[in-house]
């Protein structure tokens, strides 16, 4: 099979498109013929070595945790899926080496769910990691119907899905973004505010009594302003700022969850959730996708597709 690999930590330029052995398929796994894969900031952070203190990474490394494709073979005890099933997955394993940036992926069934019929292959590839992150963060702060939630970086890959999930729950959403993305946020059901200095005052204009919960998908020191606006300062969660723990909030590291992924698929098929795809490139151009992700200006998702 063809795959993207790197032989060491470094920058995107060292990613190569090359031949690799087909993956072995364990008893509780299936072999997926890849249609498309999602690109996430964590992918280039793994490549740069930033996760080395947290995870065992082995080389040569095939990056990537998001996948959408078709089951080509099933393991001895992988009864949840059959050959020909269309699936999506957040295929994070205990150790990092055999990722999804390849023509074939061996995926444990615990990381997979059926592909939502309402989403294209490109959209489906952008759903797993970002969608599960948004879902698990909102669950951690307990967002429910009738509440007001502040979403930081609401137009990004995770934020835009978080907005839609919260709206589907019946929450009022105030989302931070640059002005160029305000109409996009309105289309998702959020009330946009510009991030940066004076944010608390702008949010108070929309919610004079403050907000019920806040979720941080960007970092950049937004925990303090969130707690200034929260009625209960513990109802803040972040995926990007470890200081949130010292300040009484929650740090979330997304976990594979087939049930959660299936729930996201149900929202998509009900017309309540879609994935905005910003950029589509061939899998062989993963280095360019990483560079674009590093810029941090993406609206929605970057996706690589296999022809």
UniProtKB/TrEMBL annotation:
Molecular functions per Gene Ontology: oxidoreductase activity
Pfam families assigned: ADH_N (PF08240), ADH_zinc_N_2 (PF13602)
Domain Enoyl reductase (ER): 10-304
SMART domains: PKS_ER (SM00829)
Protein source organism: Streptomyces chrestomyceticus
InterPro entries the UniProt entry points to: ADH-like_N, Chloroplast_QOR, ER, GroES-like_sf, NAD(P)-bd_dom_sf
Protein name as catalogued: NADP-dependent oxidoreductase
Keywords: Oxidoreductase
Recorded coiled-coil stretches: none
EC numbers for this chain: 1.-.-.-
């Amino acid at each position: 099979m063809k795959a993207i690999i790197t032989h060491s930590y470094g920058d995107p330029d060292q990613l190569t498109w090359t031949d690799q052995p087909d993956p072995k398929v364990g008893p509780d796994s299936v072999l997926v013929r890849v249609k498309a894969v999602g690109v996430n900031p964590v992918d280039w952070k793994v490549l740069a070595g930033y996760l080395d203190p947290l995870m065992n990474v082995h080389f040569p490394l095939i990056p990537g945790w998001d996948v959408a494709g078709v089951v080509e073979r099933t393991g001895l005890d992988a009864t949840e899926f059959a050959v020909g099933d269309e699936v999506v997955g957040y295929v994070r394993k205990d150790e990092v080496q055999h990722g999804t940036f390849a023509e074939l992926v061996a995926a444990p069934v615990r990381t997979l769910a059926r592909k939502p019929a309402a989403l294209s292959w490109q959209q489906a590839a952008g759903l797993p990691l970002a969608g599960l992150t948004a879902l698990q963060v909102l669950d951690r702060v307990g967002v429910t119907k009738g509440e007001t939630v502040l979403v930081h970086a609401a137009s990004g890959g995770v934020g835009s899905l978080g907005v839609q999930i919260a709206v589907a729950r019946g929450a009022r959403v105030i989302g931070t973004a640059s002005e160029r993305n305000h109409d996009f946020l309105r289309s998702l059901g959020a009330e946009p505010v510009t991030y940066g200095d004076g944010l608390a005052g702008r949010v108070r204009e929309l919610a004079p009594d403050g907000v019920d919960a806040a979720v941080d998908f960007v970092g950049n020191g937004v925990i303090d302003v969130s707690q200034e606006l929260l009625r209960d300062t513990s109802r803040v969660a972040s995926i990007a700022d470890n200081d949130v723990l010292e300040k009484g909030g929650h740090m979330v590291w997304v976990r594979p969850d087939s049930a959660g992924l299936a729930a996201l698929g149900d929202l998509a098929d009900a017309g309540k959730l879609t994935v905005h795809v910003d950029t589509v490139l061939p899998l062989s151009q993963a280095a360019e996708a990483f560079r674009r992700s590093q810029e941090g200006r993406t609206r929605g998702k970057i996706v690589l597709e296999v022809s």
